[in-house]
Amino acid sequence: MCRLMAFVGLEPMLLADVVLWPDRSIIKQSYDARERLGDPALPMHLRHGNLNGDGFGIGWFPNEAERRVQDPSPCVFTSITPAWNNQNLSRLSSKIMSPTIFAHVRAAYPGMPVSENNCHPFAAGRYLWMHNGVIGGFCEIKRELLSLLSDEAYNSVQSFHSDSAVSFAVFLHHLGCLSDLRTQQPPDVLLQAMEACIATIVHVQQKHGVTATSLLNFVVSDGNALVATRFVAPSTENAASLYYAEGSQFRRSEVPGSKTDHPSCAASSHPSGSSVFEESSYELTHCERGARVVVVASEPITGSSTDWVACPPNTALVVTTEKGGFKNVLRSPLNPLGLQQPREVAVCLEAISRGITVKSRQWVGPPPSHFYPAGVPPLMSGMDTWDNVALPGACEGLQPHFPYPSHSALTSSSRFSYSGGGGGGGLGLGNGRLSVAPHAHSGWDWEGQQQPLKRLVGHHGSVLCIAVDESQQLLHSSSVDCTIKTWSLVDNKCVGSVHAGMKPVTHIQMLRGWLLSSHGRRMRVWNWDSKDGLVCVHALRIGDSCGNIRCLLATSKGIVYLGCQDAMVRAFKLDMSAWKHKSAADGLELHTDATPVREPDFTTPASNGHVGVVNALVSSSDERFVISAGGDAMVRVWNSNDLTLVRTLRGHRGSVLCLLSIGSILVSSGRDNTIRVWDCELDWLCRSTLTGHKDDVHGLSVIARAGRPTCSSSNGAAGDVWGSGDSKKSSGTPPPPSHQQQQRGYNSSRCPYSCLMASASADGSVRLWSVANWVCLSVLAPLPLTPAYNPPWMATTNACASPPGSTNFTLNSQELSNLLSPSPHGVASQLQQQQQQQQQQQQQQQAEAARSCAALCCALVGSSVVAGYTDGQMRMWGCGQQMLLAAAQLEATELAGVPGEVPLFHGSQAPCHAGNEDYNAEAPGCTLSKRRLQPANADQQLEQCLHEFVRIKSVSSEQRLKDQCLKAAKFVSKLLESLGADVKLVRTYEEKNPVVIGRLGRDPSKPTVTFYGHYDVQPAEEPDWKTDPFECNAINEYLYGRGCSDNKGPMLAFIFAVKEMVEGAKSDGSKGLPLNICFIFEGEEENASVGFRETLMSNLTWFEGTQVIIISNTNWVGENMPCLTYGMRGMLSVTIQVSGPQRDVHSGNDGGVFCEPMMDLVKIIGTLLEPGKTTIRIPDFYDQVAPGLIDFAWDSLGCQQGCQEFSRAGYQQALGVPSLVSLAPGNQGLRELLELRWALPSLSVVDMKPCELRVGQGTGSVTSERLACYRFGPTRFSVIPKTAVGKLSVRFVPRQDPNHIIACLQKHIESEHARLGSANSVRMIVEAMGNWWEAETGSQWIRIAEEAIYKEWGCKPLYVREGGTMPVAAVCERILKAPAIMIPMGQSSDSPHLANERIRRTNLIKGKGVIKHLLQSIAQLGVPCGPAHTQWPGGVSDLPMMAALATKGVSREHAQESLQTPDALLLVHCPWQAGVDLWWLPMCMAVLGTIYEPLPEQQQQQVGNDDVDVT
């Protein structure tokens, strides 16, 4: 018996990958056929042997790009030699590529000549034909078959000896287009011709009394569609085998051990070119959006049996192409006794054919929501905290709570209109009124877009399905990577992952606390164990001939329905009472074939079932019906008890991909980009068709009341619609209607408790719809917006909004007219050309991005929507605003009684659902205008506020971003004002960013706390950023963005901690906070903190009474344990400059005749450290280093017992260095490592360049003027620079005097330069200086901070030091005369100042809690009775100072008065940090000389530039 194989794909495939190299290829089957029939009733050649060596043939359709003329005819190569040893076959197959491939090996029956004319496939016009089997009694009926043919069909017969060639002619005869075989025919015409061909053969056999068995496995294709049959007559006999498989790609398996690693090497690996030597395992990968590859074969050509579906006997397969190039396989029963084609298949083919004309493209959104015309405010803020949302006739103003600058808004110019006069229809804001009109439309169809707030990353393939377990606050996701991942809805952390099998997990669903999943031919039931994760407690496997399970549906009746690849729906009754919660040790083995095959209890009948794959299943709210959707463009309604057909719904043009049940409403979506709404109470009438999506709609979800059986979704998005795992808590029936509801026509079957629906599309967008009137409220998309998009208001004479980060500008009418004028003298033509070029480039980029960023599923969780994408990520948006609008429209529809609209929503409670708040609609007079949407909780508000804050590019070192820094300062000031604080913006220097000062409370009887932070950030120019650095990207449990950890996140944590205390005091009826809180936020911390000290000194009254200073600008030492920082090193930024010739010279002409500055610099720097070590060689450098600085941290880390938070190997890996310095083994080496990081001075070379520096005059600080600065490059490789500059970063530790260190370094550099004997000059400049800081570990403030951390984290903190420098801590301590405590919030891996800066959400939220506990504890201490004695760094106090002044003849009163001035304090305790106004310096110089030596002249020039943070 012959063997055949047909391949149809979207992309061209190398013939060898299909015909030769698979280990079960048709070539292998030619001598090792495993499914040949051996029935004695068959002819001799079918009874014996398994060789197909009487010839072979391959056929293919050339690519359109390769055709020199438009010729649709295929190519054929045949031969009568054995296929397994034909060199020409190997040579051709390894070079030819085609999207449609036929292959056939022949076994001739007795009497048929072995000739190439008899070798398949046969070609005529644009058609290829091949046959596996035999026409019974062909010699008896051949003459009559030929007599029935038209002249054109008769002349097309290639061989009159071959029954296959004659049957091809019969097919062409019935095709009815013999005059033009190049014209493409619809698939239904090909199917009709095939059925007529088979019917003609059977009819002639019956006429001649032929009883021999006929095996008619025909395959025909025109390069676009393919029709294959499996037919046997009489039907009581066994049919020849025929299988089909679908997938996204047919490729070489990645299983280790494959014989050939790369296909391109296969043809040349053996001299003969025989394919036998190049066999390898191949596999069908499964795509997320549909099949792109279909293979039809006599036997499977891959080793995985789950890939293949057995074609039923007497059935035709029709492979069509849908929109987007996706392949669809339909099955049509063959009835040879009647020539009429079944109407059902014809309707399906017609619908699919019409769907091909639907176009797909990526959704291109409007500008960001902060693009608004002048004077038009956004409709709502992103806080989801609006009050008094009014209905028509009962409208009040919209007032947000805790306002802050927000860019997210829900607007749609097609749905909402703004009217300054308050009149007009539509849904808009006029005079502060919110009106509702379901059908408002302004002619411009665009919806407001919001960028995703969070992202869940972890899958390595497309996310196929999402299921929500609200009882345990978990979200489960399945993917094509064969895994199920579990995420915590509390902190978005991935808390579990299980590899479910070898096939993609196509569907998951929650059922009473259990998770059900389908993958391959298995269905599994899982329980969640907090220790072991998902544990399999039950498994079920269907038969091998059914194909893969594409979807599942579990009902509260204990019945599981499985939609399969073979177009059948199978129902299994399960005993849920037998499912027991198990641990991992007791769970079922996953990777085993021991699961027995179970036959279904009942199935859909083949006679009126689907004819395509079943894509979706859903049940009605009362579970009377089960609804299925398939690739045949049909939706079928079944009786849930026995799966008898109730109704067939038609309307979609292409595959129906998803279903959603909302009470008595059924929603379906498909490949035709539309969503259809069906009403079962109106005899399944299609009430509405929703358009807007630009590509396939794959996912649907709806907001439903928790624990109510109100909705069901085919993509699992509805969550556990029957409540928690405790079945006793959920009766499965809604409560009885109230009296008001009965008066309004309440119907218990129509109680969806829902107001908002979400739809996910392959265009990358998620749309939110109001279920009251099916209006699109918002579009959410992760893709970047196109700058070429211009909304209508951009063409007006109003103020033009500018993109984020740019400066706003206003054009008058004439300027705008000139700009928009098409005059060639203007810039409009250039702008138009640039826009066209940009638009073309962006369209290409967006088209490419759309392929990798299609939304496949979605779920509405509380007041958020989460969608799964093809890039393996899940994105989450807030949708509380849309919920509120949908609820308003719902209420308006109910109250107004709109004619012609069916009142969908009636129930015992209001349908809007947000958070966990319940609404009592039965209360007298209760309307939506009196309700309030549950506001986002404090944690959500904090995260949303951080998103807005990070978006502001407050880079202090970039002059072009000064406006952004000012914007950040205003952002912070508005936050403080919303707390009720007095706020002041202070700018000491015109060119510097302002300092934000605030105070909340001035009660002298209460303690006072000052919090320091900075709103400026480092630049984000590193190429390693994986996300937009100025968009806060929530990925899993982390928030990524510049400033998230340093220092915007901790700043907001403190502000929101105060906010919670303020709100708590209001709710308790208190008069105010129990303490005074001062704020100081600077904008130049990352740029030397210029002006900060002067601002602090000139505004001391704002910080009067400060007892403690709180700073959070450091990180943990590890990842798991909270820390308290009690010490930091100081820092000197030093520049060494070596100068030589007066100009740069050429290394070729003048090199070698003088000492070069760069070489001298390298030699001098080489003497600073011991070779191969980090020990500093400068004499007397280690003097004054305090002993035992590491002892407290060493004991706190528990390193003697084995430190869990810090290790030598982990630290080395985090640094990415090949090795660390030589250290002692064991704990001693670990102690040395910590000491080198924290408690010993260090010297680092941070830069070397050819550059000359000059000291600025009259500025009070050192400035660098680069006269000849350049980098080495291809044009400067031969230049000797006249000046070489090296920059050193010197860190010193407590008790070290920076004055002494500078002197030692200066002396060493001069000494080493003198030893060189060089005539070049050397110069050392101290550019910046910051003092060390250390806290008293035994103080009450440290004890209170430790208790606050313990209350929040449940463990005591680790006490650590920091190797970095933060001079602002010492400055604040000295000026405010109060101790500082540092409470780090971020982990060691947060990467501040580096690419991919982040902070863990848990750390941010708990950091807020720590601050709150700390403030509450400080409030309980009260105000100290007497003045505090201040101990300053270095051991100098104010009492010894006054004693020293007394010895010089200064009275106590005069001394005390003098020492209270800020400049005096600075000069006494840190002379080089004194202010510029030193009018009293001569009077005190003699006194000060008893304590400090005068500062060297070169250091006195650096006044005002010492507060730099280079942590």
Keyword list:
disordered C terminus; elongated; seven-stranded antiparallel beta sheet; 23% helix; single chain; alpha+beta; 1511 residues
Helix content: 10-25%
Terminal Cα span: 79 Å
Q: Which range does the strand content fall in?
A: 15-25%
Radius of gyration: 40 Å
CA-based shape: elongated
| Largest pleated sheet | 7 strands, antiparallel
**Unreliable parts:** 256-275, 366-449, 705-710, 720-753, 784-828, 897-934, 1255-1269, 1425-1511
Tally of contiguous helical segments: 31
Spatial ordering of strands, largest sheet: 3-2-4-1-13-10-14
Mean pLDDT: 75
Derived structural class: alpha+beta
Explain how this protein is built.
It is a single chain. Helix content is 23%, strand content 24%. It is of the alpha+beta class. A 7-stranded antiparallel sheet has the order 3-2-4-1-13-10-14. α27 packs across α28. The radius of gyration is 40 Å and the shape is elongated.
Layout of helices and strands, plus pairs?
Layout: E1 3-14, H1 15-19, H2 26-31, H3 44-47, E2 56-60, E3 75-79, H4 87-93, E4 97-105, E5 122-124, E6 127-134, H5 138-147, H6 151-155, H7 163-175, H8 187-207, E7 214-221, E8 226-230, E9 232-233, E10 243-247, E11 249-252, E12 282-285, E13 293-297, E14 308-310, E15 315-321, E16 327-333, H9 343-355, E17 429-430, E18 433-434, E19 449-450, E20 454-457, E21 463-469, E22 474-479, E23 483-488, E24 494-499, E25 505-511, E26 514-519, E27 522-529, E28 533-541, E29 549-554, E30 559-564, E31 569-573, E32 602-603, E33 614-619, E34 625-630, E35 634-639, E36 645-650, E37 656-662, E38 665-670, E39 675-679, E40 685-690, E41 697-702, E42 711-713, H10 739-743, E43 756-761, E44 766-770, E45 775-780, H11 813-820, H12 828-852, E46 855-861, E47 864-869, E48 873-878, H13 880-896, H14 938-951, H15 962-979, E49 982-986, E50 995-1000, E51 1008-1014, E52 1033-1035, E53 1038-1040, H16 1048-1067, E54 1076-1082, H17 1092-1097, E55 1106-1111, E56 1123-1128, E57 1130-1139, E58 1145-1146, H18 1147-1150, H19 1157-1166, H20 1191-1197, H21 1208-1215, H22 1226-1239, ...
Helix pairs in contact: 5-7, 7-8, 14-16, 16-26, 24-26, 27-28
